[in-house]
Amino acid sequence: MTAYDDLMAFQRQTEALARVAGRLGWDQETVMPRGATGQRAEEMGAMESVLHARRTDPRVADWLAAIDPDTLDAAGRANLRHIRRDHDRAVKVPADLAAEIARVTSLSQGIWAEARRTEDFDAFAPTLRQVLDLRRREAAALAGDGDLYDALLDDYEPGATGAGIEALFGALRPRLVALREAVLGAEKRPPALAGHYDEAAQLQLAREMAETFGYDFHRGRLDRAVHPFSSGSGSDVRITTRTVAAEPFNCLYSTIHETGHACYELGIDDAHALTPLGQGVSLGVHESQSRIYENQLGRSRAFTGYLFGRMQAMFGDLGIADADAFYATVNRVAPGYIRTEADEVHYNLHILLRFDLERALLSGDLPVADLPDAWNTRFEKDFGVRVDRPSHGCLQDVHWSVGLIGYFPTYTLGNVYAGCLLQAMKQAVPDLDAQLARGDTAAATGWLRDNLQRHGGLRAPRATIAHACGFEPNEEPLLDYLETKFRSLYDL
User: Fold this and answer.
1) Are 137 and 175 members of one domain?
2) DSSP state for residue 185 in the 8-state scheme
3) Does 82 show up as a binding residue in the annotation?
4) When you count CB atoms within 10 A of the terminal residue's CB, does the N or C end of the chain come out lower?
5) Residue 342 neighbours by CB distance under 10 Å
6) Is 475 marked as binding a ligand?
């Protein structure tokens, strides 16, 4: 065997073990007994120790040095790029630190969930300090003389920097704020959906929506979780949702969102299975799939007309006059506390808030004790609403409890990328709306699979979007889409 063959055989086992670790995380958030939290933390720490040892194995460096990239095809060179990057990062982080981060973040998830349930930020604060300290130590090991936040951001969006994200967000904010003010000042006020909807029926319709958008239940499953997520890759990709009797849109659109994530993983070429190319290339690109499924497709006038009929068939009279009124209700703009339930006009403002706060937390400029006040002050300034309790404020998201510092910006990057993808898709599928009105997403999801999903990690994140769209990603298509949609919807 060649050095490349040896390296890829070794890497295949590493990838398989990482999938096992991921399954432990899925289990913890779905069906694990609450009393197993301590043991699961030890299990997660042990798995991370094994994975860290493999990623830093001296043989990896030897194999990389022995391989001539010019003898490989594009996929082979991309595999080398990913393995070298992961190896270079892993060797900078002490093994005991990597294991401790895995152990503590597994424990802290349960502490956060209980603090969220009891509305007790003070009960979570010591754990958050511990998580931040561990991640600072990791960032310092990775960054050297560089920026700590950039070092962590690179885990989720390789090549991105905090300064670059700040510039993008600065370009987005003026038009987003202007659109928000115009919409909230409009005379037209679509009503919210009223009533209570059987939660078992919600799950049944959610399953149908997942299948409508191409989810393969032979290689996945749908479960409930406190915070909806997608987990896995290759031939085992699982999704979760949540149900609230008075909020069926929460269930349905969370499911469609997670279906977008899952279909990205399921759509990757089988030839890349259990290699570095066999998973989404970045979280920003991943979010482009979940957001375009949920919003540009799922909340479109065409598809909501189809969904209106399906909800009537499932639940009876919705108290909404017709498909046009239903479309307005689905896309109703209102300042709310919860990011995952935010309308498209407000969503990115939620991310801008979190981006600024987590950078300040990591640098130490914002003490953990001051986080609730900082959050509440910023939220009232941006949304005009006073936060009434911690679960509606800084305790609402799971991310910081599990150490995902640098993750939040990828949501808005995903929105920006989705705007670009929609522009290209409309040119490629001219009768898109007619198909969506029939509940037929095959052309749209097929275009995404062929032009983006099947390639997995073959290209760098921005190059992945540029390849699919035929132009460099930028914020203009997203802003144009939002302004066109909501100015029309609100008669502006």
Assistant:
1) no
2) T
3) no
4) N
5) 19
6) no
**Are residues 342 and 228 located together in one domain of the fold?**
yes
Residue 313 binned pLDDT confidence (cut-offs 50, 70, 90):
very high
CA distances (Å), origin 145, targets 29, 150, 179, 464: 37, 11, 40, 30
Is 156 a member of any domain?
A: no
Q: Which of 29, 258, 294, 483 is catalytic?
A: 258
- Residue that has been written with the tokens 């690179």 in this structure: 154
286 is in an annotated binding site: no
Q: Strands 230-233 and 236-241, how do they pair?
A: antiparallel
Which CATH number covers residue 283? 1.10.1370.30
Residue 34's pLDDT band (cuts 50, 70, 90): confident
pLDDT value for 116: 96
pLDDT at 202: 98
Q: How many domains does the chain have?
A: 2
Q: Which residues are registered as beta bridge partners of 233? A: 236
pLDDT tens per residue, range 159-177 = 999 999 999 999 999 999 9
Q: Active-site residue 258, yes or no?
A: yes
CB atoms near residue 468 (< 10 Å) = 25
Exposed, middle or buried: residue 217 (CB in 10 Å: 0-12, 13-18, 19+)?
Answer: exposed
Whether residue 212 is contained in a domain is answered as yes
Based on DSSP, count helices (H) and strands (E) in the chain, helices before strands: 20, 3
Q: What is the pTM of this model?
A: 0.95
121/207 same-domain check: no
